[in-house]
Specification:
Strand content: under 5%
Number of helices: 4
Low-confidence stretches: 126-132
Radius of gyration: 16 Å
Structural class: mainly alpha
Mean pLDDT: 85
Largest sheet: none
Distance between the termini: 31 Å
Shape: elongated
Number of domains: 1
Keywords: Membrane, Transmembrane, Transmembrane helix
Protein name: VanZ family protein
Number of strands: 0
Helix content: 55-70%
Order of helices and strands: HHHH
Length: about 130
Amino acid sequence: MKTIPLNRFAWAAVIWFLGGCYALLLREADGSVPPFAHFDKVVHFALFFAQIWLCAKAFMVENRPIPYRSLVVFAVFFAVCSEVEQALLTKTREGSVGDAVADMLGTAAALWLANKVAKAKGLVKVRADDGA
């Protein structure tokens, strides 16, 4: 049975997840004007980028393969749940397809970077048909 690594990056991912849940669901928006248009999309991108990067890094530091599919499934589940919960459970936030897209773009960027880092460190075996 595959286990989730329990190292400092995994614990950081847990703390980041809890902080993200607090920021998205428990902390109401203060109504201030954002610094620039679509600032919320940048925040969603960064939140998911950091979450998935920390998860991938937890596997990389133990020389284990990154579970790309599982991380994408987790990110989709988290994105959908957080948007539905924002729409239904908060008074000052709303669920948004655009936010979910930003979440998934952050996920994709983190996994792309994790793959590049893993390949550079020799943690991922490159197949001959990979084009690399």
